[in-house]
Amino acid sequence: MAVRKEIDGSASVPEFYGAELRYQREAAGLTLEKTVEGSFYGVSYLSEIERGERRMPEALARHVDQVLKTDGFFERRCGDVRKARKRGHADYFERILEAEKHADTIEEWAPTLFPGLLQTEAYARAVVRATHPLELDGETEAKVSARLARARLFEDDRSRPDYWVILHEGLLKLSILPPEQMAEQLNRVIDLAEQRRIYPQVLSWKTGAHPFMLGTAMIMTFVDAPPLVYTESLHSGSTIDDPGLVKDYRRSYDRLRAAALPPEASLALIESAAEDYRNGKQPG
């Protein structure tokens, strides 16, 4: 007989949701393997949901409701878990904030800003203040701290993803900070590359028309779940999981990578720009 573990839902909505899922699964006499059978998700994915470590995608929630005969309960409660978001991040980013911690690979295209995973404290603060000029200092600092915390995924050799980023050359010359702080930002990218944490490429000004002239993209793959694409504009973001669209983004990104400079030449260009900033000069 399944035993219901009492969880304070006000303290942890994901844990409350996961505990109920485990209770209903065990009450139905099903293993994790049997519960995910017929879905696109793996056993480890469902196990992490039960432990409150991962959110339930709507597609998986519908599958679970059907298998456990729970009359749409878990699909309806997906929204409650989404609302239990961490301070410092926009609600539309919450799915990606969790997904990147479990990603096997992350590939990003950054045409106008250094990606959040690569930003220094000074760079992140400048971006947040420029986007939200009237907010209180405490709110800004919460956003900066939350952004910096994301980069911890590069520190765990056992679980860190393969991270590939394509930067537009204009980013090396767009000095939104004083020269010494811009040098620090570029050194952040250089250090991660030299430690084999990331693979940066630069798309040259001279490339001309290329396959990704509109928008940003973050493409993630997983061992136990279908791939995702995340795109972002000024005050909104969209997560794409439709297989056809994901395939289109994947194809465009591969073509963009082919048009960019090789990693070695890209790193040399970034190092040259950092040296210019250290000497008080404008790169290029």
UniProtKB/TrEMBL annotation:
Domain of life: Bacteria
Pfam families listed in its UniProt record: DUF5753, HTH_31
InterPro entries: Cro/C1-type_HTH, DUF5753, Lambda_DNA-bd_dom_sf
SMART domains per record: HTH_XRE
Domain HTH cro/C1-type: 21-55
CDD domains: HTH_XRE
The protein, known as: Helix-turn-helix transcriptional regulator
